Amino acid sequence: MTTRISPATHADPYGWLLTIAAVVVGVLLMPWTSASLNIGVACAVVGIGSWFAARAGAFKNDATISGVVCVVSLLLLVFVAYPIGRMLLAAFIDQNGAWGLGNAADRFFNADVWGTGCITGNVRCGVAINSMTLAVLAGGLSTLFGFALALLAERGARRNKVWLRILSILPVVTPPFVIGLAIVILFGRTGIATQLASEWFGIPRSRWIYGLPGVLLAQTISFTPLAFLLIGGALRLVSPTLEEAGQVLRGTPWHVFRTVTWPLVRPAIANAFLLGFVESLADFANPLVLSGNFEVLSTKIFFAIAGAQQDASRAAILALTLLLLTVGVFALQQKWLGNASYTSVGGKGDNGVPAPLPQGVKWGAIALVTPWVLLTVIAYGVILVGGFVKDIGRFDLTPTLAHFGTGFGFNFDGGLHLTGSAWDSLFTTLGVAAVAAPLTTAFGVLAGYVVSRHVFVGRRSFEFLTMVNFAVPGTVLGVAYIVAFNVPPLEFTGSFAIIVLCLTFRNMPVGVRSTIASLSQLDKSLDEASATLRASTSRTFIKVVLPLLRPAIIASTVFGFTHAITAVSAVIFLATARHNLATVYIAGRVDAGEYALAIAYSSVLIVIMLFCVLMIQRLVGTADLGRRAAVGT
Amino acid sequence: MKMTNLKSVTLAVMAAGAFASFPARAAEELVVYCNVQEEWCRPMVTAFEKATGIKVLMTRKSVGETYAQIKAEAANPKADIWWGGTGDPHLQAAEEGLTEPYKSPKLAELQPWAVKQAEAAKYRTVGVYAGALGFSYNTEELAKRKLAAPKCWADLTKADFKGEVQVANPNASGTSYNMLATLVQVMGEDKAFDYLKALHKNVNQYTKAGAAPARAVATGESMVGITFMHDAVTQVVEGAPVKVVAPCEGTGYEIGSMSIVKGAKNMANAKKWYEWALTPEAQGIAVGAKAYQVPSNKAAPTPAQAPKFAEIKLIDYDFVKYGSTAERSRLLAKWDKEVGALPK
């Protein structure tokens, strides 16, 4: 009898469509490699297997959920657990190629890694301590700024909205190195601001920017928009009905804010901090340009692999350290959020207008946001100008188009010829991003949905697997992918597919986290109402949950797209002559000290990404729920 | 219902599989990992394509990245030729059997140091250019502070240059490891480490990229930078107020090398490139590419701006000893512990 009311016994066309679509897309994406076929077949087999498993009673007889969980698990195992596990095993092999735990322990508990000499004495601190300090500061500051921005954008006066949005989206579409370079050009010892300060106020020119302050500055500018996107999305989902209820009960604006709004956006705040923290740990480009003698894990790992040391074992130990830090924060976040309910969008009508911000909060937010905005505007001014002048690093402001000519030159000598050296990498990069972004979102939202709405065996491990790639340093991930996917039956090395796969699974966590954050605010009774009306799980997902997840979908797609374009350390080893990438090209320019060409290329990328992000937002639509849209127009 | 679904899945997979199984491979190609600057890699590729009609797929990376990549790909190599980049990783790859032994008939035309490099690697690599280590200083900054121009390694530890010297971190950069090994050979190990400890007080930043200090000197970010001399020459040619110095005590040098990847898919074409890259014509491309290294073919034109090896006190750099994994790990670990960890 029980099978009769379970969704699996109903015709469930959507579930099958999802599985088929996943398989077909997966296979089509990876032409030219037989490995893609192997993966496609494996997915199909697992998908079909999971269907029978569901028939047999697993996953509460829900074929859709079992299909999604099994297929996504398979992909996570192949593209996350396997390469990374294999790479990390190197930690237990010493330089002579012998296995040993002692060696690993020795290297792990080293003053190099965990030393706190900079606090107690005047020796330098361990690299893990440095990274952690930086990550806590960058995560905290970017969350703070992101929260302030989100409050002003979602709850402040309307006139703020447009330019706040544009400003906050700029850093998201900014290629790596650019912020770092702009900061060097502004605040370096011969930087513009430094020169002015020296001439006007007699402040001696110093190199204070190289080290913690510079990296922190660059990371705060870079990560704040991500926090803004996450918290803004959650804030939009806070039902104004609750805030109105607070007002009706004669709560002061401050009281309503503190007891209603704040607790409801807490999950988003925690997620924003987690992402900021993890991004800071993984950030490679900013420390590369700015860290000076302040060593952090990401660059240290890179140079353990590609520097003069060439020590894979050391790299693996440091990578393990980085993973542990991330897992630690993840656990803390779980503990902080606990099991409280953050549901605020229920099945009942949603007819509120958001409460205005308390004056104190509003002015506080404005005071916080203003310096961030100013710095961002100035930094982008430098980038804007930098591409069009001879050499901004040397203060040579002679206008020129030479940099664009080198990169994007073309002529019409009997048809269009693209003679610039940057064209190849530009086209490949855009192709990669166009394929990776929807995949990132699809996997991210599906995984986030099953994790937060369904109970199944191994759910925690599943959730953890979706997050791991984000925590693994890009360099390690890149090398891990080469080593893992270099021989049949999974031979992807040197293909377009390996870049897409690497970036898809690397950026997926944002989709997962933003989906979980959004879903924690959507009452489960919505799903239940749909199920009671005999809709299948997949139908419920598509018709009820998905439309409510638009903010998460936008955040994830935008992030997947822009980060596919701007990733550096993960793809530095995956880019080939056939498939060269924009950031690898730019990294080469920065390496050679050609800031102007790097900046010129970056501004082209910015324009393209801005355009695409706006298109994505238009395509997916905005996420106005309830009456707010009507009020707005 | 379910049978239809099963069928459609299978059909979709098969259709997609059929679509996916047309590999695209041109007949005549060559995959090159190039480790010098893009401006030099590109004309090399174009000239080779023009001379042979072979399509070249070139990737430019740093030499350390390339070494790591070739090692990771060893089970199923993707590259054919590894051209350029400082010699140590080439020697290490040779030591590990990642590259193919090949004895070119052109060896007779090469400078002795290039041949020595080949012999050291049992013909798994060969020298294509050389560059001497040195330092450069910013003439404007020096004049502003009214300091005497530094001429020797010893000058760089003077109190005048406190916080004014930039050099790469030897753990990150082959250039800087070259300096470490050079100093050990010039002064002896103990004295060299004393020197490095003294220098540490004057270093404002250990950069990651070997050539970065040359750029910092050009913009005035740092007064003095220790790099390969040709990197500093590039800045001089660009018009920066920079003077390049060959240290009076003597200095070491790098041998930019070339290797054929073992198990290369296009072995015949790889050998064609190898032979071609050792010709005077191919090595002459460097001049137009603003690369001021000394070419390895005796008949190749040396750029006018290139540091003259005859005028530099060059040491007899022991590439075999200081290129070996054991010695390098030992020296780098010692530097990190005794110098890098010191407070400023």
Structural overview:
- The complex is a heterodimer of chains A (633) and B (344).
- Chain A is an all-alpha fold and 633 residues long.
- Chain A is built from 29 helices and four strands.
- Chain A has helices spanning 2-5, 13-29, 34-55, 63-88, 101-108, 111-114, 117-120, 127-155, 161-169, 178-187, 192-201, 212-237, 240-248, 253-282, 285-290, 297-306, 312-337, 359-386, 402-408, 423-453, 459-471, 474-484, 496-519, 524-532, 537-548, 550-566, 582-591, 595-620, 628-632, and strands at 389-391, 396-399, 410-411, 417-418.
- In chain A, the strands form two sheets. Chain A has a two-stranded antiparallel sheet. Chain A has a two-stranded antiparallel ribbon with strand order 3-4.
- In chain A, helix 2 packs antiparallel against helix 3 (34-55), helix 4 (63-88) packs across helix 20 and helix 19 packs across helix 28.
- Chain A is globular and about 75 Å long.
- The model of chain A is unreliable at 1-11 and 625-633 (pLDDT under 50).
- With 344 residues, chain B is α/β, with parallel strands linked by helices.
- Helix content of chain B is 45%, strand content 17%.
- Chain B is built from 14 helices and eleven strands.
- In chain B, helix 2 (38-52) links the parallel strand 1 and strand 2.
- In chain B, helix 2 (38-52) packs antiparallel against helix 12 (280-288) and helix 7 crosses helix 8.
- Chain B is globular and about 60 Å long.
- Residues 1-26 of chain B have low confidence and may be disordered.
- At the A-B interface, helix 2, helix 3, helix 16, helix 22 and helix 27 of A face helix 1, strand 2, helix 3, helix 4 and helix 7 of B.
